[in-house]
Every structure is written in C-alpha cells, then in structure tokens.
Amino acid sequence: MTRVEVVGAGFNSAGRGDGVARAPQALRRAGLVAAVSARHDVEDAGDVAFGVPVPERGRSGLLAEEALASMVGGVRRRVAEILAGGGFPLLVGGDCPVLLGALAACRDVHGSAGLLFVDGHEDAWPPAVSTTGEAADCELGLALGVTATGVLPTGVLPGGVLAGGVLAEPGPLLRAEATALLGPRDGAELLAHGVASLRESLWFATDRDLTGRVAEKTADAVATVEGAAARWWLHVDLDVLATDQLAAVDYPQPGGLTWAELTEITATALRRPGCAGWSLAIYNPDLDEDGHEAARIVRYVEDALSCLGPRPQAPAGEGTGRP
Ligand SMILES: [Mn+2]
C-alpha cells in the first residue's frame, strides 16, 4: 500500500471562482477519496489556499498574476511536504498552472524533475500573445523557459530570481530532454497564430500519433523522461480526451483520446517508481449538471491507481532540502 495524499488546488487562471475552480470539491463529492482508498492508504490533505484571482491582465499579459503566484507557492509547499514524507501526491486542479507548483516541489525535494505531460494542447503560448490571457495556455512554456519569463511576478516560477529582466537562478523548472508530450492536437491553431510549436524541440506525440500505438509510444515517452530525470511528474489535462468521452471542459477540440487510451497511458506511468506524483486538471463541473462525468473521472482514477506500487524514499542528501 502506498500512502496517497489528495490535495485540491481549485485555481481558475481565467481569474474566476467558478468552472474548473470547483473541480476538487465536485470530485470529492463524487467519491474520489473513497476510490483511492480502495487500494491505498489515503489522506485528504485538503485544499491549497491562495489569493483571490482577479480577471485582469497584468504586466506579463496573464490574468490573475498575483493569485497565480500565491497558488503556485501554496502548491509547492504542500506537495513538497508530501514528497518529503514519502507520500504520493494526487493534485486535483483547477487548471494546468497547478503543475508549476508541483514541478517546483519535485525539484525542491528530489533535486530535479522530469515531466510526462498528457494534454490536448501544448500550453506554451507566450503570455502576451495568448488570446485568453490564461496561464493555463502558457504553463509548459513557462516551466521550460521558452517564453518570456522576465515579465512574470516573482513566485510564478518558484525560486527564480529576476536579474536584468531575465530569470536567473536557478534556471527553468524543466529541461526539454526530461519532458515528453502525449496527445496535443492544437498544432493548426498555433500555426494560424504564429505561435511556435514544441513539436521539434522535445519528445512529442499527437493524439493521431498515439492511435493504435499507445503502449509502444507511452513506453518510449517514459523511457525518454527517465533517461534524463530519475524522478518525474505526471500531468493529465482531461481535455486530452475526445469530446464524446468527456464534454465538461472549457476548450473542446476535434480528435482526442478514449478513456481506455488515457487509462493505459496513466497506468503505465504510475507503474514506474520514478513517477513522483500526479496532477489532474481541467474538469469543469459547471458543464456536468448530473455529475456523470465526475463519476467517470473517479472511476478512471481508481483504475489507474490500481497500478501504483510502493514509492522509493528520497535518499538522504538528494535535492536541496528546500523549502
Ligand atoms: Mn492544459
């Protein structure tokens, strides 16, 4: 049995308190904690507190900059405590920027972090160019340091020190060689807006690349991440699913994965001892009146977690010991 700690981070980077912000509460109501306890010791570690998001674009071009920084700091502290204590964090967003806090925590405790990123979008828009202003369109680019990080408020990229307008110490949260993307399908939209795709710069497989080859591709993605980082994070944006599988997301697109494909990817990741934690983002309970989508998500979590084995402890001296 592994101790799984469920942490909610109901942050909506649109600067609102509804929509995805309500997901942790809705998924608990649908039985998330009990589903985890079917096979693991489970602790509900509650929700991360953060400032009230304001739907105005700041200097970086992002909405709700201050709340974003406080959310990332709160997630970082909570997830780092869980990792340092030998637990497995299941971080429930909110939207994708919760990942920034998780990666920072992983780096704090384990010294560095890789990422298996499962998402219908690449999430690497430069903030000032983003049509929405939502950090949820940008967090992977920010973590990799490929978009304009110099104008972010300190705290959005934890531990980063702004020097001469660029992010200096200790560098990007994430290295491209320790990152793999599974399932993005927004290449045409990025092209139409002149936004650079990550496709050529790291391990990358679209939804179509995965069709009929999920096992082989996922094994290859995991091997790539593990070749560059002993410990790594699994991030799942549920909009990687096709709309006929899950409709309760804010930015649907054609294409996408089936529940069976997503479960296989997730289970493969969770089987690996290097997988340090898991974040789940983007479910919008306001688009799921009868709660049937929440019930399906809970079943997916239960199925995938049945593959989670014991986690190795962080060896003494590994990482920086912060915070
Ligand atoms: Mn996303």
What is the terminal separation in angstroms?
A: 27 Å
Which small molecules are bound? manganese (II) ion
Helix content: 25-40%
CATH class: Alpha Beta
Number of contiguous helices: 10
User: Can you tell me the residue ranges where pLDDT is under 50 for at least 5 consecutive residues?
Assistant: 161-169, 319-323
Q: Which class best fits the helix and strand makeup?
A: alpha/beta
Sketch the major β-sheet: 8 strands, parallel
Percent of residues in beta strands? 15-25%
Reported CATH architecture: 3-Layer(aba) Sandwich
Characterise this structure:
It is a single chain. The protein has 323 residues and is α/β, with parallel strands linked by helices. It has a single domain (3-153, 172-305), classed as 3-Layer(aba) Sandwich (Arginase, Chain A), CATH 3.40.800. It has helices at residues 23-29, 32-37, 65-84, 98-110, 139-144, 187-192, 207-210, 214-228, 259-271, 292-305, and strands spanning 3-9, 41-47, 88-93, 114-118, 162-163, 166-167, 179-182, 203-205, 232-237, 275-281. Strands 2-1-3-10-9-4-7-8 form an 8-stranded parallel beta sheet, with helices on both faces. A two-stranded antiparallel sheet has the order 5-6. Helix 6 links the parallel strand 7 (179-182) and strand 8. Helix 3 (65-84) packs parallel to helix 4, helix 8 runs parallel beside helix 9 and helix 9 runs parallel beside helix 10 (292-305). It starts with a strand and ends in an 18-residue tail after the last helix. The structure holds manganese (II) ion (MN). Manganese (II) ion binds at residues 96, 119, 121, 123, 136, 237. Keywords: Hydrolase, Manganese, Metal-binding.
